[in-house]
Write a structure and sequence with these properties.
Strand content: under 5%
Number of helices: 1
Number of strands: 0
Distance between the termini: 86 Å
Order of helices and strands: H
Radius of gyration: 29 Å
Structural class: mainly alpha
Helix content: 55-70%
Length: about 70
């Protein structure tokens, strides 16, 4: 709440500030939730990769026939 020259702010300003505060709280909560999910998935992926034996990424070459 902003008080200028000893006067109370208008109701409109109060409502706007309240709306802004609530919207920011919602957005911040969503960001925290997304970051927690990302961290959880990353940990699971790293654990899964560590459990698997190292596999080579080589692709079996195909035998090609010569054209006549």
């Amino acid at each position: 709440m902003i008080i200028m020259n000893g006067e109370k702010p208008h109701r409109q300003q109060d409502k706007g500030e309240t709306t802004t505060r609530i919207a920011r709280e919602i957005v911040d909560a969503e960001i925290a939730k997304r970051e927690a999910k990302t961290q959880r998935l990353k940990s699971a992926r790293l654990a899964s990769e560590a459990a698997e034996p190292a596999q080579s990424n080589k692709v079996a070459s195909k035998k090609r026939h010569k054209s006549i």
